[in-house]
TrEMBL record, chain A:
Pfam families: PP-binding (PF00550). InterPro entries: ACP-like_sf, PP-bd_ACP. Signal peptide: none annotated. Residues 1-79 form the Carrier domain. It comes from the Bacteria. This is Carrier domain-containing protein.
Automatic annotation (TrEMBL), chain B:
Belongs to the class-II pyridoxal-phosphate-dependent aminotransferase family. GO terms for molecular function: pyridoxal phosphate binding; transferase activity. It comes from Algimonas arctica. Its cofactor is pyridoxal 5'-phosphate. Keywords: Pyridoxal phosphate, Transferase. InterPro entries: Aminotrans_II_pyridoxalP_BS, Aminotransferase_I/II_large, AON_synthase_class-II, PyrdxlP-dep_Trfase, PyrdxlP-dep_Trfase_major, PyrdxlP-dep_Trfase_small. Transmembrane segments: none annotated. This is 8-amino-7-oxononanoate synthase. It comes from the Bacteria. Residues 62-403 form the Aminotransferase class I/classII large domain.
Length: 81, 426
């Protein structure tokens, strides 16, 4: 089971190509609001995370996720369920 | 200063000074930039539309190359006569929904004829194509069902999943192997089913789905396959029944949706099914039950267009010939095109500002295409999107090509001139 820290690092790595302005990625960073990742790109990132962890992250789960930290938590929850 | 404020007549104003519209400030900034270029691509008006391929703005005649009027039937004598006759016989509107007073014999006749054309026992006609997908998807998928949608799904399919309110999983665009993997991964709740939703011809890039492979994957997992052929019905297939017909799997499609607003030259939508029980959904689909039905003139125009689709295969030959001509011409010039030749040809540009400037210049030079920019475009791309019509002549396509040639040869000058104009109006 990956640790919280490992999930955060993985998200940072996958976010890199979408973070065009190269802003610092914090747990509190808003994925769309601060990092300026557009909605289509967020869903593409989600597919990569689904494949990496072999889990399904339904779209309605994502609509509640605003920050990087919330995404880490959502993945934790899905891995534990 | 803090606490609530009021206007002179006692209307309370938020302490923050923000209004209900403030969340759109970033959007307003983008719109303002685009407006300085000339015409707002998302808020423009034609002073006249004279034919399926010609419009007018001021005293400038415009070649229409972005209207999804694939078969060019909006001005066909048969569709116009049929619509006028419907108005004379039944008036201008139904003033009621399909479940009240809004179902006329013509609505039912069109349903029977579309069902027959698609070889399905059931077909339901809706007020628009957008409403069709909302209604059918939300009617089909209940709380225990899971919807799988293509990553490039049209807005109305995404909104369909929202109205359905069920678990929704997205798979990689046009990738049946990826769907296979996600269907295997996703747990379907007890008593639930999977509904896979794809399109035939994708409206932005103009690329075509391997529907035959999707049928195999969906049915292997016991999932139902829903195909939106909005852009391909009437255009592809031996009898015009779309890409599913062309790929030999029309009879395997569980749900087949389409619109009247493209090859059928009208306004409205339809969904046909190989499952006769689909008829029962007329009693539950809220976007079917609680909106007025399509006007008699719209229904009768679509009926005449359907007759043309069945009896005039030359329309399909024309559009494919023009699409091939335009696609070859643009790729010879070195433009990056998003897919092989089809009636939708998307020219990829470097960024939103370049695309918006070129769009304005093309309009100034008498060619209307669509501007497509992020968010919402595949790969966050900025596109000049062209849709070809059977009514375009070889000369029309040459005229479109000549403008793109100028864009290719003098692109830098054109952009510089647009920039100057923008600064002048700043
Ligand atoms: C794939 C797709 N489905 C449905 C629609 C909606 O059709 P209508 O214009 O009839 O609402 C469109 C049109 O924009 C479309 O591109």
């Amino acid at each position: 089971m990956p640790t919280d820290e490992q999930i955060f690092d993985k998200i940072c790595e996958l976010l890199k190509p979408y973070n065009v302005k190269n802003k610092p990625i914090l747990r509190a960073s808003g994925i769309m609001s601060d990092l300026e990742v557009d909605s289509t790109a967020v869903f593409d990132l989600i597919m990569e995370l689904e494949d990496h962890y072999d889990i399904s992250i339904p779209m309605e789960v994502i609509s509640d996720v605003k920050t990087v930290g919330e995404l880490v938590n959502a993945i934790q929850d899905l891995l534990n369920s | 200063m803090s606490g609530p404020k009021s206007t002179a007549d006692g209307e309370k104003v938020a302490a923050s000074g923000l209004s209900i519209f403030s969340k759109y400030d970033p959007l307003k900034q983008r719109v303002d930039v685009v407006k300085k270029l000339g015409v707002d691509p998302f808020d423009m008006t034609f002073d006249d539309i004279m034919s399926a391929t010609r419009g007018r703005i001021g005293n400038r005649e415009i070649i229409l190359a972005g209207t999804n009027n694939y078969l060019g039937l909006t001005f066909d004598p048969s569709t116009r006569a049929s619509a006028k006759d419907a108005i004379d016989r039944h008036g201008t509107g139904t003033t009621g929904s399909r479940i009240a007073n809004g179902t006329y014999v013509e609505h039912e006749q069109l349903e029977r004829d579309l069902a027959a054309h698609l070889g399905k026992p059931s077909c339901i006609v809706f007020t628009t194509g957008y409403v069709t997908n909302l209604a059918a998807m939300a009617g089909l998928a209940g709380p225990n069902d899971v919807i799988f949608i293509d990553a490039d799904a049209h807005a109305c399919i995404i909104d369909g999943t929202r109205l359905a309110g069920t678990t929704t999983v997205r798979f990689r665009h046009n990738n049946p192997a990826d769907l296979d993997k996600r269907l295997a991964r996703q747990k379907i709740p007890e008593g639930g089913h999977a509904l896979v939703v794809i399109e035939g011809l994708y409206s932005m890039f103009g690329d075509i789905a391997p529907i035959d492979e999707f049928v195999a994957v969906a049915h292997k997992h016991g999932a139902y396959l829903y195909v939106d052929e909005a852009h391909s019905y009437g255009v592809f297939g031996e009898t015009g029944a779309g890409i599913a017909e062309e790929q030999g799997v029309l009879d395997k499609i569980d749900f087949y949706s389409g619109t009247f607003s493209k090859s059928l030259a009208s306004v409205g939508g339809f969904c046909a099914s190989r499952h006769p029980e689909f008829e029962l959904l007329r009693k539950v689909m809220r976007p079917y039950m609680f909106t007025a039905s399509a006007a008699p003139s719209n229904i009768c125009a679509a009926q005449a267009a359907l007759d043309a689709i069945k009896t005039r295969p030359e329309l399909r030959h024309n559009i494919m010939a023009r699409a091939a001509q335009l696609h070859a011409g643009l790729s010879d010039m070195g433009f990056e095109l998003c897919a092989p030749a089809s009636p939708v040809i998307a020219v990829r540009r470097d960024n939103e500002v370049q695309a918006a400037m070129e769009w304005n210049w093309l309009l100034q030079e008498g060619v209307y295409v669509n501007l497509a920019v992020p968010p919402g475009t595949p790969e966050s791309s900025s596109l000049l999107r062209i849709s070809v019509s059977a009514a375009h002549t070889e000369e029309d396509v040459n005229a479109i090509l000549s403008r793109f040639k100028a864009l290719k040869d003098n692109g830098d000058d054109i952009i510089a001139e647009m920039m100057r104009r923008m600064q002048a109006s700043a």
